[in-house]
Specification:
mainly alpha; two-stranded antiparallel sheet; 18 helices; binds farnesyl diphosphate; binds magnesium ion
Length: about 350
């Protein structure tokens, strides 16, 4: 099974330097803001977006080393690449702080969410602070070309979140609706991460766009996997199972069964979906219907198709240890259990 360390290998030293860069740049004048900032930064997850940015920068670097270990032994990324990685990582961090307010989630990654730890009002403010600081750093380092992509990325995320809300409890949500939502809420920022990374290393326009396409494609697969894990994951691994159903959120495993057996009689599903927020028995019943009708298996087929597409995009990229790590990322997305 592919592990996250197999992806990190060529950027081990860069990740360390990047973390120091973040610690150094994300400071606040007031003690309470600093405390919240430390909490938010220390409870980040896998850091996939910043990793993707650094790997895509390495991919298009003029003379990468021969092996992943050689690449990872010393830092290779420029400060400009760290700015690119910081922008996407911090947009993501702020968006999840705000997402937990919207979803009223008390836990993230096995620890209290920022809103649960510091209250909703403070969580809004620390999320805003992180965004403001990221914009400030991008502008003051004069990375205007990188910055020109950032507004669009944030606007897309916000629209994805609104669209998701519009489709909550709507049993007529189609695969196209779903793919559009996950493109906006997840894939677009992963695409931006890959594109900004490549751009920061001076890649040609067509290579930047190829990297973006790769990031978007693996981003779709990543979110489908996330939604599958909600049905089959292990509560003990830090993310509560069946959260989406508890929030009456319609994701691919459910859509897959509505496209088929339940297409002509979705009444039972509609009734159950409306009950899910308050009634655990409805959640369990809907979960059983999805499992019995192979919703998870069908969603997995779609995810695998996106992973294959992402891998074939890599074939047109330079063959070096960074590409190998991106290949490992594709395998990891399919394998991951958290
Ligand atoms: C997680 O979805 C949510 C997102 C990936 C996007 C959230 C975006 C916003 C709240 C818009 C605000 C944007 C900015 C730039 C501040 P999820 O709830 O399905 O996943 P989860 O299970 O991890 O909570
Ligand atoms: Mg959420």
């Amino acid at each position: 099974m592919m592990k996250i360390d197999d992806i990190r290998k060529p950027i081990v030293a860069d990740i360390e330097a990047f973390e120091r860069f973040l610690k150094d740049k994300f400071t606040a004048k007031s003690k309470p803001m600093q405390e919240m900032l430390n909490y938010a930064l220390n409870t980040r997850g896998k850091c996939l977006r910043s990793m993707l940015a650094m790997l895509c920068a390495g991919l298009y670097s003029p003379a990468p080393k021969a092996t992943a270990e050689e690449c990872g032994a010393q830092r290779n990324c420029s400060t400009r690449t760290y700015v690119a990685a910081m922008l996407v990582e911090m947009i993501h961090t702020a968006s999840l702080i705000h997402d937990d307010i919207i979803d009223m989630a008390d836990e993230r990654r096995g620890v209290p969410s920022v809103r649960a730890r510091f209250r909703n009002d403070m969580a809004v403010l620390v999320g805003d602070f992180i965004l403001a600081r990221a914009m400030d750093l991008g502008m003051s380092s004069a990375q205007y070309d990188l910055m020109s992509h950032v507004g669009k990325a944030m606007a897309t995320l916000c629209e994805g979140e609104v669209l998701q809300d519009v489709h909550t409890r709507k049993a007529d949500t189609t695969r196209e609706d779903y793919l559009d939502i996950i493109y906006r809420k997840t894939a677009s920022l992963l695409g931006t991460s890959a594109a900004l990374g490549a751009m920061s290393a001076g890649a040609k326009h067509e290579d930047v766009e190829r990297a973006r396409k790769f990031g978007e494609t693996i981003g779709i697969a990543f979110q489908i996997k996330d939604d599958i894990l909600d049905y089959v994951g292990d509560d003990k691994l830090g993310k509560q199972r069946l959260n989406d159903l508890k929030e009456s959120k319609i994701t691919l495993p459910l859509i897959e069964i509505m496209d088929n057996e339940y297409a002509s009689c979705p009444e039972e599903i509609i009734i159950l979906l409306h009950r899910c927020r308050k009634d655990n028995a409805a959640v369990e019943r809907l979960h059983a219907i999805v499992r019995e009708n192979k919703g998870v298996e069908r969603a997995t087929e779609t995810m695998v198709a996106y992973i294959s597409r992402a891998m074939s995009l890599l074939n047109d990229m330079p063959d070096n240890p960074y590409r190998e790590a991106l290949m490992n990322l594709c395998l990891y997305v399919g394998d991951r259990e958290i």
